[in-house]
Design brief:
Number of strands of chain B: 13
Strand content of chain B: 15-25%
Structural class of chain A: alpha+beta
CATH topology of the largest domain in chain A: Aldehyde Oxidoreductase, domain 4
Distance between the termini of chain B: 51 Å
CATH topology of the largest domain in chain B: Uridine Diphospho-n-acetylenolpyruvylglucosamine Reductase, domain 3
Number of strands of chain A: 33
Oligomer: heterodimer
Largest interface: A-B, 65 and 49 residues
Strand order of the largest sheet of chain A: 8-10-6-17-14-15-16
Helix content of chain B: 25-40%
Order of helices and strands of chain B: EHEHEEEHHHHHHEEHEEEEEEHHH
CATH superfamily of the largest domain in chain A: Aldehyde oxidase/xanthine dehydrogenase, molybdopterin binding domain
Largest sheet of chain A: 7 strands, mixed
Protein name (chain B): Xanthine dehydrogenase family protein subunit M
Keywords (chain B): FAD, Flavoprotein, Oxidoreductase
Structural class of chain B: alpha+beta
Number of helices of chain B: 12
Radius of gyration of chain B: 19 Å
Shape of chain B: globular
Pfam families (chain B): CO_deh_flav_C, FAD_binding_5
CATH class of the largest domain in chain A: Alpha Beta
Shape of chain A: globular
GO molecular function, one term (chain B): FAD binding
Chain lengths: 956, 298
């Protein structure tokens, strides 16, 4: 026994080194190394799963990477531990970290410190080599990037902004992706490398992200922090008859126990939208009626999570069990158990609570019966989609505290301003007394457009006066966080012999689970652009979203479109086959073009316009890439069949009925500008894009732009980062404010030169440049921005411009995906030989980032298409409760996707840009299904298209 | 955070120390090696030992040794070591095949062969591999060492013959000249638990006929080798038809359950398909192997 070990057994204390610094610590019995390191403020060690599956907590111990979440803290005695921050720091990055910055090897960046620790070990071990990188990187999950940029970062292949290409190891067969053609803006007067729109500067927080020093939601030490844990319902449908919390309250270290007796009685929805009337009010902070397994029964606030969880187990609850309904097809049947039978349909905004109906849509344009009469070919089918978990690596979490008499919430949210509004409504607080902000958010994908942790933290902070933290576990993410709506979709489509569509009939049944958050929105959005994409004289939609006692469904990337597009695009593919028409041709023949009416069950309102159009280019680009092929080796053997498939999708660039953002831009000292904008950065890249937009409008460079965002105290109102609004709404507000300030600066220069401040006249004689302004006609010397700022301050002239954007007009963006696959008929295995996505993103503000959004969306969609599923046991209990049995794609599971951009220029978006974040996901699953159909001659209709299902199709 | 039930933790300093600790703390103590199965189970409260005895520092059990006609593998040998060993690749490519598809490199850095065998997860790959290779488990307890065949060692899902006060210390794999072996699995995602997997070891006689053949299956409800195939294969020259026959026997012998990874008939089909594939590869490797494998006397 060594001296160190003897020391543990005597005192419990031990020493080890972290990044070369000696640490003395006394781990709690059973403590893992991850939590011990975080207690010592090594916040670069992240929690993604806490069960050794995701790799976010990876550290090196004596040079070997391990998952610190399942490494007993005691084992670290005498060891040398290296974290991402120990590899290098901003200004002095390790080469591997610099390459992650240069190649944009991250989006939200939450997985990055762990990823880099693993990558550094691979690099240090000459025996490993990077040829087997896809397998070497299996222990580190990334949900944002799709891994291509990570792979490039590790092997040192930086895709240059001119759009040339790369091949990732293991994917040498992949053809070059093209980042071009990218339209020049004609406004790039700034210095080279200024990072203006149309170029690809790296993320602003890049150096901090790669060294683990960029703080996320819980990466801050707050003295006296208490922890909250929740007792979840063991029953799918029950009423609490009685609760005894005495034993729990008496446990040492427990501060408060909350039950339904402590709940505000105001109904709300966890879903957050610009209009709170978009979602039904059917939820209470604590409800005496429990409608799904895991729903809050009680919460405990204690000195530690362990004590709070222990106290939850001491709460005695007597339940009165109720009949439950789990099958959405039975939810509307007479006599079915009512999930919200107690609700007033008007107050809660429900279609019919006596039939478990949250929302429905029935409407017809033209006559589908007549349309089918005219058709020579009719295809009809039913498609089924599954529950998907967002699996952002940072789980939901909130920290709250009192600052004076103000409540402060630091939360992992896409919608801090909407959270502020609803928290004030629920707890009857003055908005001036509530600050909600986010640090960098570790991914969202729609999952953080919900209010899931903030309400309990508010309750706990207000009643204890102490700072309180509530952090979801990974299991919480699978069991109580809303998932993607599962849908059953019936499609009937008819066409004449020439391929022109005559009728399209759509039936949708969505299972929204126990609460109606996002139920109406997902149902309406799902059946809108998917249907409006095609010119069909006769259309009918019948859609319902129903309550069941399953865990709630909610917002997920694509917001319903992904599910419905899967069905419609597969039906169209089958129709093309029956007609003998090429599937690309069928789309060319029937897709809407500028000038065509946009029709679902009636013509869309005038707010939706063709601000630009690039679908035709997308179809051409994808078709050409597929024809060109790549060097992928087709697997040898009679068991392999090869096929190709494609699908299209359309999406409005903004949510309907308004999305608001107010931005301000201010000249500050040193020729710098401060941009304040409310929207949230959660890996979508908006901070970089906003800096590019401001820099371009102000003729400066991105390194002169500072951003304050996502904070109700420091930025103007913003509806939030959802509905793909970050560039086209918030970005447009930034552009308007920056442009206004640029005009003001010209006016001020003119005034400074002795003409007095005459707004709007004679301003053309001064020109704004990087370091100041110059009189054009007189070719004067440069007047520095600092000089002007001092003059303006002395003369009481404001140098801040504030502008708003309300998203009143919306444009349309397009994506086309195509695949070539090989399918093994003996095992059902699908191997992707070629993956192509062509996107119409308007003017592409940051090609590398936009490409990353597309690659990440494709990766997430391939998980959906091939293996992801939140599985229920038929009685409302989730069986896939950890990442070990909910499978998100790893590098080794994914092909490299060739990405192509259409050349278009939108009349609405800033600099002609359109949104490109959700939409990239939508055409992938149907394109893959169509390729599999082509390969094996039988159509898969259920997601995920797992090997056993493909095999079943072949061997019925 | 996911917090395990409270437990006490002690680090064993030697095999004897570990055995003494097991003896002292009794039924509620568990040994932890790499910790990749036990610690997540504890965090999810699927396992709740009062005492955790950490044998991670027992470097005396971390070795690979070609010792006469057997390969001796210390129970604390990491998956990474097995994967990277040239001896293992040369003598038992089935182990290299299996290690290549086990989890991910970070797990393989900590996870051990002893931990895998003692966890006895029905979807665990190395148990099948050891069955197929006729490995012997060396188990030490207060009364000394005992040698168990895999059939004796492995009692069923999550259950082994290792008593509470015993420790698996070594796995011995017999080396046979003229042998070839292979492992293959079908998984939903790379590095995942097997939907189904198969392993085979074949020894060829000088005349090219099969003198010994063993097939094992993973995750399809069979805790033993597919002994039915031996009678069909032994004495025959390897052919596709023979493999097909063996595949059918394997499919008949297994007893899979329907679960998230697939329905019964699919798994049964995979047992057939994968048996054919591993026999094909094992036979070709056996044919390619030098018949007179040099075995160092030691």
């Amino acid at each position: 026994m060594t001296l160190e070990q003897a020391k543990i057994e005597e005192t419990g204390a031990m020493t080890f080194e972290v990044n070369g610094t000696r640490v003395e610590a006394t781990p709690a019995p059973g403590q893992c190394l991850r939590t011990l390191l975080r207690e010592h403020e090594h916040f670069e060690v992240k929690k993604g799963c806490d069960t050794g599956d995701c790799g976010a907590c990876t550290v090196q111990i004596d040079g070997t990477p391990v998952h610190s979440c399942i490494y007993p803290a005691h084992r670290a005695v005498g060891k040398q531990i290296t974290t991402a921050a120990g590899l290098g720091q901003p200004g002095n990055l390790a080469p591997i970290q610099q390459r992650f910055v240069d190649a944009s090897g991250f989006q939200c960046g939450f997985c990055t410190p762990g990823m880099i620790v693993t990558a550094a070990a691979i690099e240090a071990d000459a025996a490993l080599g990077v040829d087997d990188l896809p397998r070497l990187l299996k222990g580190n999950l990334c949900r944002c990037t799709g891994y291509r940029s990570i792979s490039d970062s590790i092997v040192g292949q930086h895709t240059p902004p001119d759009g040339s290409c790369h091949t990732a190891p293991g994917h040498e067969h992949a053809e070059a992706s093209s980042l071009g053609p990218v339209r020049a803006t004609g406004r790039t007067r700034g210095a080279r490398g200024a990072g203006l729109v149309g170029t690809s500067p790296g993320a602003i927080a890049g150096e901090r992200v790669v060294s683990g020093l960029e703080p996320y939601t819980l990466d801050v030490a707050i003295p006296g922090l208490l922890h909250l844990a929740v007792l979840g319902s063991p029953h799918a449908h029950a009423r609490i008859r009685s609760l005894n919390v005495a034993k729990a309250a008496a446990l040492p270290g427990v501060h408060r126990v909350f039950t339904h007796a402590d709940s505000p009685t105001t109904l709300f929805s966890t879903a957050r939208h610009e209009s709170r009337f978009d979602d039904p009010d059917d939820t209470l902070v604590f409800d005496q009626t429990l409608r799904f397994r895991g729903q809050r029964v009680a919460a405990v606030v204690a000195d530690s999570v362990a004590i709070a969880e222990a106290a939850c187990r001491l709460i005695d609850v007597e339940y009165e069990l109720r009949d439950a309904v789990f099958d959405p097809r039975l939810a509307g049947a007479p006599g079915a158990p009512l999930v919200h039978g107690d609700k007033d349909p008007v107050v809660s905004r429900l279609a019919d609570p006596t039939r478990n109906l949250v929302a429905e849509l029935h409407g017809e344009f033209g006559s589908v019966d007549e349309g089918l009469e005219m058709a020579t070919t009719i295809v009809s089918g039913r498609w089924q989609t599954q529950r998907i978990a967002h699996t952002h690596l940072e789980t939901h979490a909130t920290m709250g505290w009192l600052s004076g008499d103000r409540l402060v919430l630091r939360t992992s949210s896409q919608v801090p301003f909407l959270v502020q509004k609803e928290i004030c409504r629920l707890f009857d607080l003055d908005p001036a007394g509530v600050r909600v902000f986010t640090a960098r958010v570790g991914g969202g994908f729609g999952g953080k457009q919900e209010l899931l942790t903030e309400d309990l933290v508010t309750l706990a902070v207000l009643s204890t006066g102490r700072p309180v933290q509530y952090e979801f576990t990974r299991t919480d993410e699978f069991t109580i966080t809303p998932v993607r709506h599962p849908m059953t979709i019936d499609v009937t489509v008819g066409a004449q012999g020439d391929g022109r569509l005559t009728a399209l009939k759509l039936g949708v049944l969505a299972d929204t689970g126990a609460y109606g958050n996002h139920a109406p929105g997902v149902m309406f959005h799902g059946t809108s652009e998917s249907v409006a994409l095609y010119n069909v004289p006769n259309k009918r939609v019948d859609a319902q979203s129903v309550y069941t006692n399953n865990p709630p469904s909610g917002a997920f990337r694509g917001y319903g479109l992904g599910q419905v597009i899967f069905a419609i695009e597969c039906a169209l593919d089958e129709l093309a086959r029956e007609l003998g028409v090429d599937p690309f041709e069928l789309r060319r023949l029937n897709s809407v073009r500028p000038g065509d009416p946009l029709v679902v069950t009636h013509e869309e309102g005038p707010d939706l316009i063709f601000g630009s159009y690039g679908l035709d280019q997308c179809l051409d680009l994808a078709e050409a890439a597929l024809k060109r092929g790549n060097r992928a080796v087709v697997p040898v053997g009679l068991q392999w069949r090869v096929g190709t498939g494609m699908a299209s999708s359309m999406i409005a660039t903004t949510p309907p009925r308004g999305h608001r953002s107010q931005a301000s831009v201010q000249l500050v000292a040193g020729g710098r500008y401060l941009v304040r904008v409310g929207t949230t950065e959660f890996g979508n890249g908006t901070t970089t894009v906003h800096a590019q937009i401001a820099a371009t409008a102000l003729h400066t460079s991105v390194d002169r732009i500072d951003l304050l965002h996502s904070d109700t105290d420091s930025a103007g109102y913003d509806s939030g980062a959802f509905g793909s609004a970050g560039v086209v709404v918030a970005g447009k507000a930034v552009l308007a404010a920056a442009t206004a300030l640029a005009e003001t600066l010209v006016e001020v220069a003119s005034a400074w030169s002795g003409h007095g401040l005459t707004r709007g006249t004679d301003t053309g004689t001064w020109q704004l440049e990087h370091d100041g302004l110059r009189a054009v006609e007189s070719e004067s010397e440069l007047v520095s921005l600092d000089t002007l700022m001092h003059w303006a301050t002395a003369n009481d002239v404001g140098l801040t411009a504030v502008r708003r954007e309300d998203g009143a007009l919306r444009s349309l963006a397009f994506n086309v995906h195509a695949f070539r696959v090989a399918v093994n008929t003996a095992t059902g295995e699908v191997r992707i030989l070629q993956s192509v996505q062509a996107a119409d993103a308007g003017f592409v503000v940051n090609p590398e980032q936009c490409r990353g959004q597309i690659e990440g969306g494709v990766a997430q969609a391939l998980g959906t298409a091939l293996f992801e599923e939140v599985v229920l046991d038929g009685a409302g209990a989730v069986t896939t409760r950890v990442l070990r049995n909910y499978h998100v794609p790893q590098l080794v599971d994914l092909p490299v996707t060739e990405v192509y951009f259409a050349q278009s220029h939108d009349v609405l978006g800033p600099y002609g840009a359109k949104s490109m974040s959700e939409s990239t996901y939508n055409p992938v699953a149907p394109a893959l299904a169509n390729a599999i159909r082509d390969a094996i001659g039988i159509r898969p209709t259920e997601l995920p298209m797992s090997p056993d299902r493909i095999w079943r199709l072949l061997h019925g | 955070m996911q917090i395990p039930a409270p437990f006490d933790y002690v680090r064993a300093s030697s095999v004897d120390n570990a055995l003494a600790l097991l003896d002292r703390h009794g039924a509620e103590s568990r040994v932890v090696a790499g910790g990749h199965s036990l610690l997540p189970m504890m965090k999810l409260r699927l396992a709740r030992p009062d005492w955790l005895i950490d044998i991670n520092d027992l470097y005396e059990l971390d070795y690979l040794l070609v010792d006469g006609p057997v390969l001796r593998i210390g129970a604390m040998t990491r998956h990474t070591t097995l994967l990277e060993s040239d001896d293992v690749r040369r003598l038992f490519p089935i182990i290299t095949d299996a290690e290549h598809v086990i989890a991910d490199p970070i797990v393989r850095n900590r996870g051990t062969i002893g931990g895998s065998l003692c966890q006895a997860d029905p979807a665990e790959d190395l148990s099948t591999v050891c069955h197929v290779l006729d490995a012997v488990a060396v188990v030490r307890g207060p009364a000394g060492e005992r040698m168990l065949s895999m059939a004796e060692f492995h009692r069923g899902p999550y259950e082994t013959a290792v008593a509470q006060n015993e420790l698996l210390i070594e796995v011995r794999v017999p080396i046979r000249a003229g042998s070839g072996s292979a492992y293959e699995k079908v998984e939903r995602r790379v590095g995942d638990w097997a939907v189904a997997a198969a392993g085979a070891s074949v020894t060829l006689a000088a005349d090219g006929t099969i003198s010994k053949a063993t097939v094992g299956l993973t995750a399809v409800g069979l805790d033993r080798n597919v002994t039915e195939v031996e009678a069909v294969l032994v004495g025959q020259v390897p052919t596709e038809q023979l493999f097909a026959e063996a595949g059918q026997l394997a499919a008949d012998a297994c007893d899979p359950l329907a679960d998230q990874r697939g329905p019964i008939d699919y798994k049964r089909h995979l047992a057939d398909e994968l048996t054919r594939r591993v026999l094909r590869v094992a036979c070709s490797r056996a044919a390619a192997s030098v018949p007179d494998v040099t075995i160092q006397e030691g």
